[in-house]
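Hi F.,

I've been meaning to write this up properly since the lab meeting, where we talked about keeping a consistent format for the predictions we share between groups. The idea is simple: the sequence comes first, exactly as it goes in, then the structure tokens exactly as they come out, then a line or two of notes. No screenshots and no reformatting. I'm using this chain as the first example so we have something concrete to point to.
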Amino acid sequence: MIASIVAAFYVAGILATVHAVMTTRTAPWAIAWSVSLVSIPFIAVPAYLVLGRSKFEGMVEGYEDRKEEIDVTIAEFEKNQEPRIVSGSENYSEYEAVRNLVSTELTRGNEAELLINGDATFDSILAGVAEPRG
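Output, unedited:
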């Protein structure tokens, strides 16, 4: 009886490992799940059943359903950013590196605020939400 339960957990661990490798979004997570599912299946199999499922199921279908709306929003965003774009220079390789890294143009007129605790963070968020946009 115990041997069949142990064997079932190991088989479930191997099957879950295959699933994890095929569906996990990043290599480190796939490796972590694989190692734990095969080495400690009594803990990892129940954990994988609860935590290992993809939270992104249906994301591609949702994107396809709203692709036109998303494309219009992106086009409007890019149009609104045109006056703020920083023109680059061939003399500054750092500018080109950052621009290529973020896959968008760099813009001027940005602000950053250092928020040191939760109260300051939430006050800033609430003030930003209440601020009228124009």
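Notes:
The CA atoms of residues 56 and 101 lie 24 Å apart.
The two ends are 70 Å apart (CA to CA).

If this format works for you, I'll send the rest the same way.

G.
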